[in-house]
Amino acid sequence: MVTPLELDNRTARRIFLQRHDLSDAPSGPGKGADLDALIQRLGFVQLDSINTVARAHDLILFARRPAYRPRHLKRLHDVDRALFEHWTHDAAVIPMPFYRHWHLRFRRDAEALRARWKRWQGHDFDQQFEPVLRHIRDHGPVGTSDVGKDEKKSSGGWWEWHPSKTALEYLWRSGALTVTRRDGFRKQYDLTERVIEENLCVAKGSPDPVESIDWLCNAALDRLGFATSGEIAAFWATVTPQEAKAWVEGQVQTGALIPVRITCNGGAQRAVFARPNIAYAPIEPPTGRLRVLSPFDPALRDRNRAERLFGFDYRIEIFVPEAQRKYGYYVFPLLEGDRIVGRIDMKAHRDQDVLKITALWPERGVKWSGGRLAKLEAELNRITRLAGVSQIEFLPGWLRDPL
Q1: Cα distance between residue 234 and residue 211, in whole Å
Q2: Is 349 exposed, middle or buried (CB count within 10 Å of its CB: 0-12, 13-18, 19+)?
Q3: % of the chain beyond a pLDDT of 70
Q4: What angle (nearest 5°) sits at the alpha carbon of residue 128, between those of residues 126 and 131?
Q5: 396 Cβ partners below 8 Å, 6+ apart?
Q6: Between 129-139 and 163-173, two packed helices, what is the crossing angle to 10 degrees?
Q7: Which residue among 75, 160, 184, 209 is least packed, with the fewest CB closer than 10 Å?
Q8: What is the dihedral of CA 336, 338, 341, 345, to 10 degrees?
Q9: What φ, ψ does residue 13 adopt, rounded to 5°?
């Protein structure tokens, strides 16, 4: 029986933040090769349309590269083809070198969605595959408004999609189509062979599933630093929990992974796995700079892990009736060093050229000192450039007591 290596809470937090490029002071051009390398380091960047200050993907990248602007991501995806859009736990942009391992995801989505969406749509949606593909082949990229104009929309569930819209989404999720760009936030679809390099396309053959499972598990652990098999499976949301568990067991047997116990915020211990060199990698103290994070930042998207490591309990309240919200519609976490120190409710009123701060709640045990306020103001001044406004306004009663 191998005695697990033990990591205290602060060391675990610092390892995790380092893997997510949140330790060093944010710098770099935030475009071209630098931006591509950053996204490869993160693994993917989740896309989200809510734009109260900036869209989630833009804020994720801005938090690490203040010189970043949305046009830089658009160029990397639409023109340079360094990224492709598909699904992890949600819609995301993913580095093109990873594309070959998404063949596994295409097959699994094809199997899972066809049965589920048939029950939802009936048989009409799969009868639209060939007409939709023929239309794109003859006329070029399409959006959902270009097909199915006279079709009846489905009812029930989250979406009201007509059969051709459902066919477009299915053909994208199963790999026949690729999102070539977004106009506004609306996807434009084209035939995959027109967009993706020939050697990466499904038609050229897929990696063995075992190879892709191994790659996906390794890549997840590289970005998590330490993890349970369930956390490894959830990172890309492609490998099953059973496959991740078998992978971990095999890696432990060969000595490629070791058992580790991390101390969680609050003192409880959690059994995880890591590479043997985790105890020897240099972990520098993170920058003390305060920065605003997206609620969908990859360091926080696993809410349970965020609570265990940082003691940070966060829930999106977009769908909670206003009177029942604990905080606000779209509240941004605040990271300082290796701690989450607060959360801020703010919105860019572009018609008024102002970023309005409605409320800020320090986390318990955090004093909102003059020095911390100065750090916040410096960060908000940087944020205005991303948000497209030039002024900041703190509304009366903005500084709240911790909840």
Answers
A1: 18
A2: middle
A3: 92
A4: 145
A5: none
A6: 80
A7: 184
A8: 70
A9: -60, -45
Q: How far is CA 335 from the centre of its chain?
A: 17
Structure tokens, 176: 């026949």
Q: Is 20 exposed, middle or buried (0-12, 13-18, 19+ CB in 10 A)?
A: buried
pLDDT digits (tens, 9 = 90+) for 243-292: 999 999 999 999 999 999 999 999 999 999 999 999 787 788 899 999 99
The C-alpha angle 393, 399, 401, rounded to 5 degrees, equals: 165
- Cβ atoms < 10 Å from Cβ of 251: 19
Integer Cα distance of 72 and 78 in angstroms = 10
Which residues, 6+ apart, have CB-to-CB distance to 308 below 8 Å?
264, 265, 268, 270
In the chain the first and final C-alpha atoms are separated, in Å, by 44
Q: Which of 197, 220, 389 is nearest to 305 (CA)?
A: 220
- Tokens 């007591």 belong to residue: 401
Which tokens hold the place of 361? 């709640």
DSSP-derived letter for residue 77 is I
